[in-house]
C-alpha cells in the first residue's frame, strides 16, 4: 500500500514514515501544501495523511482542491462510460487537471491551452485535434501549464479578449457530446473566458460560510457575463463538497429538542 504523508514538521514526518514503513507501507513525505497537492493529485497513492496547518496551502485547502478537480475528471469519465465523446479542458495555470489525469510534467508538453489561445489571439488557424491528448479511460484533454498565467496577462490588451477560449473550442464542439472546462477558484480573465464559452456552469462549493460568501460573488459574475457576453449561459447546479452529515443531524436534533 502506498502512502503520502504531508506534514510541515520534519521530525514528525520522519517518525510517521518510520512507523508506517515498519508496517509494510511504501511512504513518501512532503512538507508544504503545494507539494502535497501535486503528489496527491497524481493518483499514485492509496491513502494520504494531511496536516491541517501546512504552509502555502493547508490540508483542508488541498483536500478541497482535489475534490473540486475530481468532480470534473470523474464527471467526464462517467459520461465517457455512458458512450459519450468527452473533452476536458484544463484552464488552471497550475495544470491541476492535467496532472491528475496522468501527465505529471505539464510544463514539458509541446502544445497546451496557452498555445491554442495564443494562436486565436494572433488570428492563426488551429488544426483539428491540435493539442488534444487522449486518455486511456476514453476522454480527451486539452492540457494547461504555467504559460497560461502569462497568457492571462496578455489577454488584457487583446481585442475580443473574453472570447479567445470560445474561438479555440468552436471547432471542437462538432466533435464532442460534452466539453467540460475545469476552472481555478478565481474570477480572473480565464474564468470569464470559460463562462463566455460555456452553455452552463456547475459550481462546486465547500459547505462552509466563507465559501457561501464567495459563491455570492461568483453568481454576480455569472449574471454579468450573461447580460453582456453570453446570454445563453445558465447555472446547471451547485455541487456541495466536504459536507458533514453530522452537522445536519445535530441541527435537526436541536430543532426537535
Query: What level of helicity do the residues show?
Result: 40-55%
Number of helices: 10
Low-confidence stretches: 249-257
Distance between the terminal alpha carbons, to the nearest Å? 46 Å
Order of helices and strands: EHEHEHEHHEEHHEHEHEH
Largest sheet: number of strands, sense, barrel closure: 4 strands, mixed
Based on CA inertia axes, which overall geometry fits? globular
Question: What is the radius of gyration?
Answer: 20 Å
Secondary-structure class = alpha/beta
Description:
With 257 residues, the protein is an alpha/beta fold. It has ten helices and nine strands. It is 45% helix and 18% strand. The chain has a four-stranded mixed β-sheet. A three-stranded parallel β-sheet has the order 2-1-3, sandwiched between helices. Helix 5 runs parallel beside helix 6. The longest helix is centred in the first third of the chain and has 23 residues. The chain is globular, with a radius of gyration of 20 Å.
Amino acid at each position: 500500500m502506498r502512502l503520502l504523508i504531508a506534514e510541515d514538521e520534519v521530525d514528525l514526518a520522519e517518525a510517521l514514515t518510520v512507523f508506517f514503513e515498519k508496517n509494510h507501507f511504501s511512504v513518501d513525505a512532503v512538507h508544504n501544501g503545494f507539494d502535497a497537492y501535486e503528489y496527491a493529485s497524481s493518483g499514485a497513492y492509496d491513502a494520504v495523511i494531511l496536516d491541517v496547518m501546512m504552509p502555502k496551502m493547508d490540508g483542508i485547502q488541498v483536500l478541497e482542491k482535489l475534490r473540486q478537480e475530481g468532480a470534473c475528471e470523474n464527471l467526464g469519465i462517467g459520461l465517457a462510460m455512458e458512450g459519450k465523446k468527452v473533452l476536458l479542458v484544463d484552464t488552471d495555470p497550475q495544470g491541476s487537471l492535467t496532472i491528475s489525469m496522468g501527465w505529471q510534467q505539464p510544463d514539458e508538453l509541446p502544445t497546451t491551452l496557452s498555445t491554442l489561445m495564443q494562436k486565436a489571439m494572433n488570428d492563426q488557424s488551429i488544426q483539428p485535434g491540435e493539442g488534444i491528448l487522449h486518455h486511456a479511460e476514453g476522454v480527451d484533454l486539452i492540457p494547461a501549464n504555467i504559460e497560461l498565467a502569462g497568457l492571462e496577462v496578455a489577454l488584457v490588451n487583446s481585442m475580443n479578449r473574453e472570447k479567445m477560449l470560445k474561438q479555440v473550442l468552436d471547432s471542437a464542439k462538432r466533435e464532442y457530446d460534452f466539453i467540460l472546462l475545469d476552472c481555478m477558484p478565481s474570477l480572473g480573465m480565464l474564468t470569464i473566458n470559460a463562462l463566455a464559452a460555456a452553455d452552463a456552469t456547475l459550481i462546486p462549493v465547500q459547505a462552509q460560510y466563507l465559501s457561501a460568501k464567495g459563491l455570492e460573488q461568483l453568481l454576480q459574475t455569472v449574471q454579468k457575463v450573461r447580460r453582456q457576453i453570453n446570454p445563453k449561459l445558465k447555472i446547471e447546479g451547485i455541487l456541495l463538497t466536504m459536507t458533514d452529515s453530522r452537522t445536519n443531524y445535530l441541527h435537526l436534533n436541536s430543532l426537535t429538542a
